[in-house]
Design a protein that fits this description.
This protein is 22% helix and 35% strand. It has helices at 11-29, 95-99, and strands at residues 33-42, 53-61, 65-73, 79-89. It is an alpha+beta fold. Strands 1-4-3-2 form a four-stranded antiparallel β-sheet, with helices on one face. Strand 3 (65-73) and strand 4 (79-89) form a beta hairpin.
Length: 110
């Protein structure tokens, strides 16, 4: 579920919302960029049953990379999370083939 053992919203849920907010912001400005890293700092818990609102603003959106700050606010407007999301352009190598490549031994044999 969305609630952890402490009775508050699981941090993974807020991190996911953070990534979605950043991706939407970046995609509107450069659809060739994709999330590469998310770092979230949790300042206070998000109370279950209250809204969680994420707002994104960019430090940089360029041709090959982007850095976006996302602030997450709880139902009373309190700042709950601060995240930095980086995005990058995928390389010219087909991503699917990179993910399914066969590992090699030390001599380069498959």
């Amino acid at each position: 579920g969305w609630v952890n053992g402490f009775g508050i919203m699981h941090g993974g849920v807020s991190a996911c919302v953070t990534e979605l907010a950043a991706a939407e912001y970046v995609n509107a400005r450069n659809p060739d960029l994709h999330t590469a890293h998310v770092h979230t700092t949790y300042l206070r818990p998000v109370v279950v049953g209250s809204p969680y609102v994420a707002t994104a603003r960019a430090y940089h959106v360029g041709r090959s990379s982007a850095v976006v700050e996302v602030l997450g606010f709880g139902g009373s407007g309190e700042l709950c999370t601060v995240s930095t999301v980086t995005a990058r352009r995928l390389g010219s190598v087909d991503r699917a083939s990179t993910l399914t490549s066969t590992p090699t031994d030390e001599d380069g044999a498959r």
